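note to self — DONT lose this again. spent like an hour looking for the file last time. sequence + predicted structure for the chain T wanted, 182 res
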Amino acid sequence: MKLERLAGNKIKYSITFEELSAKGFLQEEFESFIWYDLFDEMVEIAKREYHCDIPDTISIEIFSLNSKEIVLILTMGEVKQEGNHVNEFIDSKIKGTVFIFESIEDIILLAFCLKNLQINANCKLVLFEDNYYLITANEHPLIILIKEYGKEANLSISLIEEYGHIIIENNALEQLITYFKN
């Protein structure tokens, strides 16, 4: 089960059919309590991963369903009927991709690698919960190189920008090179 925080009160869960089958969901005769167990597990994971308090009101919606997985959106607290969370999620994915790095040194190494390859990238560097995040455009060759130094984060751009501390707003990698020249 993968999860990604979309907003302060929304979490996206991606669950493969293999995982659902292991929990007994795809059997012909399954009990309704299995669904309650899944929802309880989703809430526990949200508490553990994002250190959030779960209110009395929770909404779980099916966001998408394909041949490999089901994607559910858990909304905590007041539920809006407008469906704006779908637009927020899509807008977040259009804006770019968020990568998490173990240390600032990994980002500096990435910056010098891209400089040597003469690749320019307009990235934003953010510190959030003692981790460094790089927000970048969805450019395929760039994303492949960034994954060599960091990994794709399970948090939305909106969340990182709202609750994180922006270290460098624009051209973060180029600015790091100027700060850390030999």
